[in-house]
Every structure is written in structure tokens, then in C-alpha cells.
Amino acid sequence: MSALPPQNTSSAKIDVSAQEWRLRVDLAAAYRLVALHGWDDLIFTHLTVRLPGPEHHFLINPYGMLFDEITASSLVKIDLAGNKVSESPYEINPAGFTIHSAVHAAREDAQCVMHIHSLNGIAVSAQKDGLLPISQQSLFVLASLGYHGYEGVALNAEEKPRLVADLGNRVFLMLRNHGLLTASATVADAFLAMYIFETACAIQVKALSGHRELISIAAPILAGIQAQAAQVTRGLGGALVWPGLLRKLDRCNPGYDQ
Q1: Burial of 16 (0-12, 13-18, 19+ CB in 10 A)
Q2: What does each C-alpha distance from 245 to 63, 116, 174, 252 come to in angstroms?
Q3: Torsion sign, CA atoms 118, 78, 149, 182
Q4: d(C-alpha 60, C-alpha 28), whole Å
Q5: Which of 1, 110, 197, 218 has the fewest CB atoms nearer than 10 Å to its CB?
């Protein structure tokens, strides 16, 4: 197997629109934040963002690059058939293409799709009852959660309509025996959703490890949780926390915006 092409370490931006560049910077930052939180699985998961326009082009990670190495200019632009639509020395993960192209083709509102193989997420995805209403974080997820049964490594295009149907118009999808997926209008919202999703799973794993009876949160509280979430975030969602996350990256892992 040939080695990865050398990374683009130049500070010069690639020749794209200002809007595409902003999306590239945010997505590269999200990859590095996934690594910072320990949710990456070496090179084997994927985050994507759909670019403006009727073509449904989207950006995905260069296959073989660690998440904490990814830069805005190294992201690969592809179409819904998996073809590169701009020059890039990098290839893409075919399983990543299958999952993300399915969602981007079906959901105009989901500009950003994130899929991770976090340990806590996979652990809960393998539990028959799925995510339990035992924490405040779990309620935010349960208000918009679907489940998709495991069908093997995501290489079969015939799985796409089933995955899309299981996601529906929801934000969260638990891929059984596989991992977690979020779909939102912005990179910031998709990342915040994933943070809450993984945190809810981590709490559940810890709670179950205590071998004590758990207290479930009452159903009427779940019914009102979305309105409460909007109040807590002042209606801004991920936009409220995203600038702080970028400042953190600038301190501990700069260069994502190259």
C-alpha cells in the first residue's frame, strides 16, 4: 500500500468560495475536536458537510489521515456517487460514503452528518433496551432518537433507504452494534448533539456498572424537554458553544484552518 501524500502545510487557502472555506474550517475543527474528546477510531469514522448548491457535493475526510491532523484544505470534495469533484491526492472511506451520501441525499435540512465509533456509544448500541431515560442528557437525545439495525460494514447501497427511514427527520440515530450518528443544520449543532449523545451513553454505562436499581425519569418530563433545551441554549444551539471550542483548539491543536 502506498504512503499517504504529504499533508498541505502551507498557510495559503485553496481556491474555493468564502462560504465553502468557512465550512471546511468548521469541519476540520470538528474532526480535531472528535480526536480531542477521544471519540475517534484511528481513521475509521467520518464527519461530512454538504456544500451549498443543487449538486449535493459534500466534504469528507482524507482516508488515512488521523483526525487530529486534518486541515480545511485536506478535506475531499465528492458527489453523491462518491466521485471526487475537485483535485485531491487523497482517497475516501467507502463505508463513510455509503452512510453519509444516503443522509445528504435525503435530508436537505441536514447539512452536517457525524458518525463515530465511541466506546460508550457502541456499548449502549449493543444493549437491547438502547438508551435509557436516566439522565438529563439522555432526555435531549430521546426526544429525537431513531435506531438502525446492524447489517455489516456499510458498503451495500441497498442499506441506504433503510438507514434513511430509521433516521427519519430525527437528529440522533443509534446504529446497533456499530456507533452513533447525528444530523443537523450546522457543524456546530451536529457536534453539540454528538457531545450530548456520547455523554448520555457514558452516563448509562457507568450507572449500569454500579449494579443498583436505576431511577427512570418520568415520561411527562421527556415531553417538555425540547422547549427546555431551547431555553437553556437561548435558541442558539451549538452556536453558543462553538466559538469557545474553536478557541480551545487554537490553544491546544492549532492549524486546522490551513
Answers
A1: middle
A2: 25, 19, 25, 11
A3: positive
A4: 9
A5: 1
Residues 6+ apart with CB under 8 A from 159: 98, 102, 151
pTM recorded for the entire structure: 0.91
Q: What Cα–Cα distance (Å) separates residue 224 from each residue in 142, 167, 219, 220, 229? A: 12, 21, 9, 7, 9
In whole angstroms, give the CA distance from residue 158 to residue 206.
Answer: 36
* pLDDT surpassing 80 at residue 9: no
Task: Name the helix (H) or strand (E) containing 196.
Answer: helix 187-209
Q: What is the 3-state secondary structure (H, E, C) of 211-237?
A: CCCCCCCCHHHHHCHHHHHHHHCCCCH
pLDDT in tens, 90-128: 998 887 788 999 999 999 999 999 999 999 999 999 999
The Cα–Cα gap between 79 and 32 comes to 24
CA gap 134, 218 in Å, rounded: 9
Cell of 54: 443543487
Q: Which amino acid is at 186?
A: T
* Residues 102 and 86: beta-carbon distance below 8 Å: no
Long-range contacts, stretch 223-229, CB < 8 angstroms, 24+ apart = 225/139, 225/140, 225/142, 225/143, 226/143, 226/144, 229/140, 229/143
Q: Which helix (H) or strand (E) holds 113?
A: strand 112-116
Q: Which amino acid is at 235?
A: G
CA distances from 6 to 44, 88, 133, 209 (A): 20, 12, 47, 45
